[in-house]
TrEMBL record:
InterPro entries recorded: YcgL-like_sf, YcgL_dom
Organism: Thiohalobacter thiocyanaticus
Entry-linked PANTHER family: PROTEIN YCGL
Protein name: YcgL domain-containing protein D6C00_13935
Tree of life domain: Bacteria
Residue ranges occupied by any YcgL domain in the UniProt entry: 1-85
Entry's transmembrane regions: none
Length: 85
């Protein structure tokens, strides 16, 4: 599964994964507003055996299939900035 990873200019260490580059149609508007202007960081193939630094690749693939995006948030101490997500 191919995916594109973006970072916003409002939340540090927070990354938004989507299936297709520049397709945010399944991402809630409220989340897009929280993240601010998005910048493409990279695209990659999420194949079995792939490892990611801060996310479980199986969970990322499942979220991409079921909801169309995956949000990689900073360590637990900063999660209070994302109420309801």
């Amino acid at each position: 599964m191919q995916c594109a990873i973006y970072k916003g200019d409002r939340k540090t260490d927070t990354y938004l994964y989507v299936e297709c580059e520049d397709d945010f149609s399944r991402v809630p508007d409220s989340l897009l507003q929280l993240l601010g202007n998005l910048e493409l960081v990279m695209t990659l193939e999420l194949h079995p055996g792939r490892t990611l630094a801060r996310a479980d690749p199986d969970q990322v693939r499942e979220h991409l299939r079921s909801q169309g995006f995956y949000l990689q948030m900073p360590p637990d101490k900063d999660r209070a900035e994302f109420p309801g997500i």
